[in-house]
TrEMBL record:
This is DUF538 domain-containing protein. GO terms for cellular component: nucleus. It comes from Juglans regia (English walnut).
Amino acid sequence: MLTDPHFYICETRIILNTEETKVKKMGSQQIANHRGDAEIYHGEALCKQKSQELLGEMSLPKGLLPLDDATEVGYNRTTGFVWVKQKRKKEHRFRSIGRSVSYDTEVTAFVEDRRMRRLTGVKSKEFLIWVTISDIYIDDPSSGKITFANPTGISRSFPVSAFDLDEGKSGDHKN
């Protein structure tokens, strides 16, 4: 049985699914912990508006979170914790950089000027593998670059313009 390649594939899937479940539980737990003093908004149109306003406040591109089916957006200004809940997972392709990004039903982060850290619920497709994104930041606004990092510290930078609102609208969507 241990020499059967299917065993290893199944074992890997179980481990990955277990890790995803842990992350989802952590996100839900964090939402519960930060909900008390938070501004909370409901309804698709209002959630979209508030998430774009928040990205603008943080000097991040407004097309960074192209979430159309958001049901709840929350922001605790004291702790900097923000969350977005949506009806279903969404996959979006940013055409100008040729990258697909997956947004889970819950996306959470701690935000500050030009940065989202401890991000959960966002993955980028690199070759054939979905890679968790844990940090998004603009170090030097004059560079015109935005950087995405995974939990191991490996990062990749792209033009900020690739995530402008117009690009976000023209990307490809999958639910």
